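Input chain follows. Return structure tokens only.
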Amino acid sequence: MSRQRILTIATQGAGLYEFTRQAADFVGANGEPEGLLTLFVRHTSCSLLIQENADPDVRRDLDAFFGRLVPSADDPAMGYLVHRAEGPDDMPAHIKAALTAVSLSIPVMGGRLALGTWQGIYLFEHRASPHRREIVLHLST
């Protein structure tokens, strides 16, 4: 048996947006003791990741690292980019999404997500402007 839901997350620009609680609530509401939660983001300029959720410096550092790894198309080092249809953060956002994941799978044990103590689930927004991002939650039992 499986259940699905679409979760919408409103972003306020680039950064990591935790949605562990919403995913855990979805799993808990279905009452299944074991299974697999698959998460899939329905966009090409953001991604998903599991990362530490205790120290906010981790999120800031990850965002800063990816900003240095793939700077804006306005940066002279990125002059080779052709796709700039939606601004200087457009193609860099696609590159960042290609380097990270657009889907995740998390085991469900004892009716709960089998995440480690400090693990959280994040939408990683790669665009500078606000967006409404859709994540498909699929619970297989």
